[in-house]
Amino acid sequence: MIFKQKWSMALLSVLALLTLSACTEDQTKPASTSNHTTEEMDHSTMNHSSSGEVPATLKIAENPKFPVGSTAIITNGHMDGMKGAEAEIVGAYDTTAYVISYEPTTGEEPVKNHKWVIHEELIDPEEAPLAPGTEVKTDAAHMEGMENALVHIEEAVQTTVYMVDYTSTLNGEAVKNHKWVTEEELTSK
User: Fold this and answer.
1) Between 29 and 138, whose confidence is greater?
2) Beta-strand runs (E) in 34-146
3) Domains along the chain?
4) How many Å apart are CA 23 and CA 15, to the nearest integer?
5) CA nearest 143: which of 117, 164, 167?
6) What is the DSSP letter of 58?
7) Residue 136 in contact with residue 130, Cβ under 8 Å?
8) Using an 8 Å Cβ cutoff, are 41 and 109 in contact?
9) Long-range contacts made by residues 77-82, C-beta under 8 angstroms, separation at least 24?
10) Which of these, 97, 152, 139, 116, lies nearest to 38 by C-alpha position?
11) Per DSSP, which regions of the chain are E strands?
């Protein structure tokens, strides 16, 4: 009889624990949260290298701080592997650069605070600079799903933008004709 009571009590305790644990909220955090911030953007679909073609209306900088053929250090990498990399300047252009947010045409998660799309990569924009909050389409193809996407202007910066060649500090990959690095993201060697 005592054995039967102990066994019943043990079974009742186990059932009570199972019931209570099933009623509690899941305290685990999701495996990932949106990582599309200015410094933590997922660039796995980014075309790090390009053909080097630029819009026909893009104005070549007359007196850039970093002339074509010179080298500089990337100080503020907006992608993994850029910060601290030595960059060779392959193009310098005066324009308005934009930080944008958009929903990719591929249906992927929204991209927030992407750096950089230039004024000449926008489709039928008003005169530069566009005000934050403006929505316009882009023909830039820096990332999969960017081309023809409706973008939301977050910030506009009148600057010299550079097309650069560099070697990733993350994986040693050679990147050719990367679009775009702003003058503020570079420093002399």
Assistant:
1) 138
2) 59-60, 71-74, 86-102, 111-118, 135-137
3) 59-187 (2.30.30.1210)
4) 13
5) 117
6) P
7) yes
8) no
9) 77/185, 78/38, 78/39, 78/41, 78/115, 78/116, 78/185, 79/41, 79/43, 79/46, 79/48, 80/43, 80/168, 80/170, 81/168, 81/169, 81/170, 81/171, 81/173, 82/166, 82/168, 82/169, 82/181
10) 116
11) 59-60, 71-74, 86-102, 111-118, 135-137, 150-167, 174-182, 186-187
Cβ burial, residue 177 (10 Å; 0-12/13-18/19+): middle
Half-sphere CA count of 60, side-chain side, radius 13 A:
8
Q: What is the pTM of this model?
A: 0.74
What DSSP state is assigned to residue 172?
-
CA distance 39 to 53: 26
Place of tokens 């409706």: 150
Task: Name the amino acid, one letter, at 100.
Answer: I
Q: Hey, CA dihedral for 163, 124, 37, 110, is it positive or negative?
A: negative
pLDDT tens per residue across span 113-153: 999 999 999 999 999 999 999 999 999 998 899 999 999 99
Q: How far is CA 7 from CA 17, 22, 127, in A?
A: 16, 23, 82
Residue 96 exposed, middle or buried by CB count within 10 Å (0-12, 13-18, 19+): buried
